[in-house]
Design goal:
It contains 12 helices and no strands. The chain has about 190 residues and is mainly alpha-helical. It has 2 domains: about 55 residues, no CATH class; about 110 residues, Homeodomain-like (Arc Repressor Mutant, subunit A, Orthogonal Bundle), CATH 1.10.10. The chain is globular. The termini are close together.
């Protein structure tokens, strides 16, 4: 789920969910139980992803993210995580403090952390695509290969070499087939 959609679909700020696991039935009540039953009865992953897409499409958005937050998220994606927070704040006419507050409330992460994760995801795509860690570090804006290594260690509890050769589980392949890459680029104005 795109972070700019999470606040709308969940009905609560991602930041307010805390660090623990929150059951979907706590968020969506009886409709979550029906979805769970339908997913359990589905015969394959394609059917499960179709059910999930339909369920999310029918959700009545309770909140719409600020246009400025969506624009900043889109700028982070367009820059492949190499956007500077000061530049983002300037582009939307907000102070850095206001941007951090609104972005964190609606996305669940600060703009800096979101940019780090987008940059990391681009690095993972590069490594899985067969590029060397040095090439990926340079392409993705890391200061050096050690900086890339630190991020992969933090976010994936792995090394670039292990990550590049790790076999993807079935669910990851099916997710990619059903949803596409991490950074999706639909034409709608709410962002990716």
């Amino acid at each position: 789920m795109s972070p700019v959609r999470a606040w709308s679909l969940l009905g609560v700020s991602p930041r307010d969910l805390g660090d623990g696991v929150v059951g979907v039935d706590e968020l969506w009540g009886g409709s979550a139980w029906r979805l769970r039953d339908q997913l359990a009865a589905a015969t394959d992953w394609d059917e499960r992803f179709t059910l999930m897409k339909s369920f999310l499409a029918l959700r009545d958005p309770r909140h719409e993210p600020d246009v400025e937050v969506v624009a900043c998220w889109n700028d982070i994606l367009a820059a492949r995580g190499q956007a500077r927070v000061a530049d983002l704040a300037r582009s939307c006419g907000w102070s850095r403090k206001r941007l951090w507050s609104r972005f964190a409330a609606q996305i669940g992460l600060t703009p800096k952390r979101a940019a780090m994760l987008v940059r990391f995801r681009c690095a993972v795509d590069g490594l899985l695509g067969g590029r060397t860690a040095a090439e990926v570090a340079a392409e993705c804006g890391y200061a050096d290969q050690a900086h890339l290594h630190r991020d992969i260690s933090i976010f994936a509890d792995s090394t670039p070499g292990v990550l590049a050769t790790r076999y993807l589980p079935d669910i990851a392949r099916y997710r990619h087939q059903a949803w596409g890459t991490f950074s999706q680029y639909p034409a709608d104005p709410l962002g990716r």
